[in-house]
Amino acid sequence: MSDVIPENSTGTAVPTAPRPLVGVSLKLYFGLAQTRAWLAEVAALGEVLAGLPRPVDLFVLPSFPALADARELLAGTGVGYGAQDVHWAERGAWTGEVSAGMLAETGARYVEVGHAERRRHFGETDQVVAAKTRAATTAGLIPVICAGERHAADPATAAEEALTQVRAALTGAAPGSEVIVAYEPVWAIGADAPAPAGHVRAVATALRDALRAHDVRGRLIYGGTAGPGTYTELAGAVDGLFLGRLAHDTAGLRTVLDEIARS
C-alpha cells in the first residue's frame, strides 16, 4: 500500500511510493513436513523484517494443506500468507476446488491468479482469471495477478501481451480493492538469468499505466529468475520481487529483503 505524507507546500496530501513487497510461491516443490520446516525458518525472519532500515512487506504462498501451518507459525511475525490458486465460485458442486471465502477463513490475505503454468497446463483463460480476481477481491483477498509474454520479444510486443492479460484480470477487481501485478515473462521463468532490466522497465511502465486506469490500489512486482541484484537493477520501475526456488534457502530470501530495504 502507498503511504501518505500529510501535506505538501500547497497543503495537499501527497502519496509516496508504494511500500516494497516480496512474495514467494513454493509451487509443488515441498512436502508438508518440509513446508512446515521452511515456514518456521521464515517465521524467524520476522525479527529481520522488524530491523530493516525501511519496511518491506513479505508474503508466502504454500500449498493448500499447509495453510493451517502458515497460520500457526507466522502469527505475530508480520509475514503474510496465502494460496497459489482459488476457484471463482463461492460454493457449489465444484469437486476439489477451494473458494475465496474459505481461504479468507484460514487467515490468508493473498492469492495467486493467472500463473503461466495454470494457463498452459489447465487451460485458464483471461476470462477465468478475471472471475478468480473478482472472487478474491470480493472476499477481501489481495490477488497476485501474474502476467507476461510467452516468448522473448521486443518490449512493445511484450507489453501488449502482458497488458491484455492484466486489463482483462482487472475487469474483475472490486472497485477500490488492493491488487498486486506480478510481471513474469514466461521465457524467463526458471532461466539462467532474469529478463534484461531495460526490457522489464519498459513493460513495467505500461503495466503501471494500466493499474492507474482502474479503480484499484496496485503494486507491481517482478518475477522470472529474480534474485540478489535484480531489485537494484529495477529500482524505481517495480515495487518488489516475486521469488521462486531462490527463496527455498531462507538465507537467499534474507539477502533479497536486505537489498530491497537498503536500495
Could you explain how this protein is built, in words?
The chain is α/β, with parallel strands linked by helices and 263 residues long. The chain has one domain (20-262): Alpha-Beta Barrel (TIM Barrel). Helices cover 39% and strands 20% of the residues. It is built from ten helices and ten strands. The chain has an eight-stranded parallel barrel, surrounded by five helices. Helix 6 packs across helix 7 (155-170) and helix 7 (155-170) runs parallel beside helix 8 (197-212). It is globular and about 45 Å long. The chain starts with a strand and ends with a helix. 42% of the residues are buried.
Write the layout of secondary structure elements.
Blueprint: E1 2-5, E2 14-18, E3 21-25, H1 32-44, H2 46-51, E4 57-61, H3 67-74, E5 79-83, H4 100-105, E6 110-113, H5 116-122, H6 126-138, E7 142-147, H7 155-170, E8 177-183, H8 197-212, E9 216-223, H9 230-234, E10 240-243, H10 250-262
Parallel strand pairs: 3-4, 3-10, 4-5, 5-6, 6-7, 7-8, 8-9, 9-10
Antiparallel strand pairs: 1-2
Protein name: Triosephosphate isomerase
Organism: Streptomyces lunalinharesii
Catalytic activity: D-glyceraldehyde 3-phosphate = dihydroxyacetone phosphate
